[in-house]
Amino acid sequence: MPDQDSIAPAAPLARRLDGVSSSAIRDLLAITQRPDIISLAGGLPDPSLMPADRISTVVAEALSERTTLQYTATVGTTPLRETIAARAGAHPDAVVVTHGSQQALSLLSQVLLDAPGEGGSDVVVEDPAYTGALQCFDLIGARLHRVPLTADGLDTDALEGMLAAGLRPTVVHTVSTFHNPGGVTLSPRRRRHLADLAERYGFWMIEDNPYADLWYDTPPPAALATYSDRVISLGSTSKILAPTLRVGWMIAPEPVRAAVELVKQSADLCGSTLTQTVAARLLADDGWLEEHLTGLRRVYGERARALSAALAERIPRLSTTHPDGGMFVWGTFTDGTTTSDLLERAVDEGVAFVPGAAFGPAHRSSLRVCFATADPRTLTEGVDRLARAVDASAVR
Amino acid sequence: MPDQDSIAPAAPLARRLDGVSSSAIRDLLAITQRPDIISLAGGLPDPSLMPADRISTVVAEALSERTTLQYTATVGTTPLRETIAARAGAHPDAVVVTHGSQQALSLLSQVLLDAPGEGGSDVVVEDPAYTGALQCFDLIGARLHRVPLTADGLDTDALEGMLAAGLRPTVVHTVSTFHNPGGVTLSPRRRRHLADLAERYGFWMIEDNPYADLWYDTPPPAALATYSDRVISLGSTSKILAPTLRVGWMIAPEPVRAAVELVKQSADLCGSTLTQTVAARLLADDGWLEEHLTGLRRVYGERARALSAALAERIPRLSTTHPDGGMFVWGTFTDGTTTSDLLERAVDEGVAFVPGAAFGPAHRSSLRVCFATADPRTLTEGVDRLARAVDASAVR
User: Fold this and answer.
1) A265 near A272, Cβ under 8 Å?
2) In this structure, is the dihedral angle defined by the CA atoms of residues B122, B126, B127 and B129, taken in order, positive or negative?
3) Do B266 and A132 touch (CB under 8 A)?
4) Residue B314: its pLDDT value, please?
5) pTM for the complete prediction?
6) What angle, rounded to 10 degrees, do the helices at B52-63 and A52-63 form?
7) Among B107, B220, B248, B383, which is least packed, fewest CB within 10 Å?
8) What angle do CA A162, A165, A168 make, to 5 degrees?
């Protein structure tokens, strides 16, 4: 038998993996799979709102073409690239279909960032940040610089200060619209400011944008790509059609796109012709898609309002965002409550959330709640349970 | 507009990408998509032999469960892991489902190999080698060491000599069974020898094994994993069910498996619940699967024999392998013909193959032909055209 040392992962990777896994929170959240727990911890869309019958019908049609069974191009099928480009006002050649937008983040990290042994790269992330992006940047060994998120999104004035002080990032990553976990949206003024900074200091913006179609009352501001050529835009079908398709995409200028294609070829040869065909047909069916999205917007909007109202009424010490779209509310206790401690008590009461520390070390008094998979009555019950956990913590 | 320099990929990656792309051959092979060309160049299975109706039925059934639409575990669905483990005689916990076995190669490269700036790693590959593996190892910047392939597979005596001379590889990669492109199979004696060397010198064997089920008359030797614990086994549904499922897998000992899971989480979160459900149901249906595989074996066996016979009769100067399974014949001209030159003339005659140089610099007089997608009559016609190209080259 080989001994443990000799079969461990390569040492530099092992060091980086240490930073990637945050097992304490993960272990606690594993408990939240129990049926008696109302989990507001997940970041999942609601499967009961996904178009199962329509996907099934399109699969049957698509499989009558034998090419649907075969490998496809590394950059994705032509109909899907054309459909994505048309929706984004881009050229189809600029589109690379990816295995969810997570793969786009992973490929971009490999293409744009230098490994530590090669000098390393500086990356600006939001604080709090999307954990999937943090994982990719951590894995490549990038130096992370956190810029606060405010009610108007990434604080571009704070970023400007860091740039003026000498920071030269390769990439600024932003979930510009209906932020995960922050629940906020980058304002048009700040989009312009960020684009100006990118031109001045020569960095890439990665606009990670899976929630933009999930607005409740009014559409979000125009995408960052309308302000600058220095934007790599990421999108996904996971939140609007179904995660099982594993269809995301990147829209990127040519030298980056070409490098991403080569790295993707090595990463997995190509995506699934079948699920890309399904995605293309559903996204191209304007009438059906609009009706489907209208339904999602109505249901998620109701849930967001129910959650916000319950939190405001039952836990006044929690200051929360009031999202205009997406799937998340971010809350911060004004009394310094440590949310990783609160989670234990909350699980005892039968409700779960994600402690803020999962999204950045500064957020020990914050939490993320996802309202996407629960109806208003369940959300209200979940908040009642959370309020009991908060009250019990205060009493102790 | 950003200038070209500032938007180029990170410099160290750009250097490595130079080695990864072999554009001259790729450009020439792009021509072979023309309908008047008989392409023996592709490495694709025949879509007319794939179970489209069966997949369509299983998709419809699977989508009636809402969980099929959702994200799944990073390591894959439990039914699929159990089915793969049962077929391989392994424990389900050791299985990681990947996006084709190409993703397994990519993840293993990241987990096992150090980047050049971190000291780098030595990797042994077969000569000729599977290009998808070469791409992964090149991209991470590994130092490649080529060991000749003979009629009995990887020449383990040659490897032993290199090890005795001081080589200490981290990984030895082998397509042990029905080699791509070599068409040969590692003999039981050499499997034992390779396993002994792995124990003695402490390297990992990656057994890349997508073709093992495609034997024609008799099953191949027992897998490398039956000889040693130092084996990471890769498999795939692409050659036996359909590439569109994008379902491959890795079976690996625990420290490697756990590291692969973390890297895969960053790479793409998880695979498709839908296509994994389809793969699980088809692989677990023993009676159906055996009948389906019997059909594939019969058809591919007929094609292999037709191609071999035609090559032997029409191009006696080409010494070829005579595969017992898989999809490829490897041929070497005994008169020093340069196959990249021959390809141009072959395309003029209406037939294409892959020149040996694509698989290693030593193989300028070799070529790979894939017989999987053409019937015996077409194969014979393709060989006639190739023979005319060879004759024309000789005359010049």
Assistant:
1) no
2) negative
3) yes
4) 97
5) 0.94
6) 180
7) B220
8) 70
Instruction: Measure CB to CB from residue A71 to each of B44, B114, B259 and give the nearest one.
Output: B44
Pairing of strands B248-251, B95-98: antiparallel
**CATH number belonging to domain B65-285:** 3.40.640.10
Q: How far is residue A189's CA from residue B205's CA, in Å, rounded to a whole number?
A: 56
Task: Measure the CA–CA gap between B44 and A73, rounded to whole angstroms.
Answer: 13
In a mutagenesis test of the A interface, which of B49, B63, B108, B241 is the best target, namely the one with the most A β-carbons within 10 Å? B63
Interatomic CA distance for residues B229 and A6, integer angstroms: 13
Taking only the tens place, the pLDDT of each residue in B350-363 is 999 999 999 999 99
Site of tokens 């001081």: B166
Q: What is the pLDDT of residues B305-324, one digit of tens each?
A: 999 999 999 999 999 999 99
Rounded Cα distance, A134 and A180, in Å: 12
Please answer yes or no on whether B268 and A103 come within 8 Å at the CB atom. Answer: yes
Q: Which CATH superfamily is domain A5-49+290-395 in?
A: Aspartate Aminotransferase, domain 1 (3.90.1150.10)
CB within 8 Å: B67 and A55: no
- Distance CA(A162)–CA(A209), nearest Å, equals 25
pLDDT in tens, A277-303: 999 999 999 999 999 999 999 999 999
For chains A and B, CB pairs below 8 A equal 235
Tell which residue, A156, A153, A155, A121, has the closest CA to residue A136: A121
Q: At what angle do helices B273-284 and B286-314 cross, to 10 degrees?
A: 90
Long-range contacts of B10-14 (CB under 8 A, 24+ apart): B10/A111, B10/A112, B10/A113, B10/A114, B10/A118, B10/A121, B10/A170, B11/A114, B11/A118, B12/A114, B12/A115, B12/A118, B12/B116, B12/B117, B12/B141, B13/A110, B13/A111, B13/A114, B13/A259, B13/A263, B14/A259
Q: Which amino acid is at A89?
A: G
- Note whether A47 contacts B69, CB cutoff 8 Å: yes
Would you give the end-to-end CA distance of chain A in angstroms? 52
Listed in sequence order, the residues at least 6 apart from B67 whose beta carbon sits closer than 8 Å to its beta carbon are A47, B273
Q: Is B63 in Cβ contact with A60 (below 8 Å)?
A: no
For residue A293, give the H/E element and its range: helix A286-314
Question: Whole-angstrom Cα distance, residue B248 to residue B103?
Answer: 8
Q: How far is A347 from A340, CA to CA, in rounded Å?
A: 11
Whether A174 has a pLDDT exceeding 70, the answer reads yes
Three-class HEC string of A332-370: EECCCCCHHHHHHHHHHHCEECEEHHHHCCCCCCEEEEE
**Residue of A69, A102, A117 with shortest CB distance to B52:** A69
Return the pLDDT at B10: 54
Query: Strand order in B318-320's β-sheet?
Result: B318-320, B328-333, B366-370, B354-355
- Among the partner-chain residues B7, B52, B266, the one whose CB lies closest to the CB of A66 is B52
- The CATH class given to the A70-285 domain equals alpha beta
Structure tokens at B210: 């997508």
- Do the Cβ atoms of B221 and B188 come closer than 8 Å? yes
Q: What percent of chain B is predicted at pLDDT more than 90?
A: 88
Distance CA B302, CA B297 (A): 8
Among A280, A269, A277, CA closest to A66: A277
Locate the domains of chain B by residue range. Answer: 5-49+290-395, 65-285
pLDDT the model gives residue A8: 44
In this predicted structure, what is the pLDDT of residue B266? Answer: 94
B127 contacts B147 by C-beta, under 8 angstroms:
yes
Poorest-confidence range of A1-5, A350-354, B285-289?
Answer: A1-5
Host H or E run for residue B42: none
Instruction: Report the run of H or E that residue A172 belongs to, with start and end.
Output: strand A171-174
Question: Chain A residues with CB inside 8 Å of B100's CB?
Answer: 268-269
**Inter-chain residue contact A272 with B272, CB threshold 8 Å:** yes
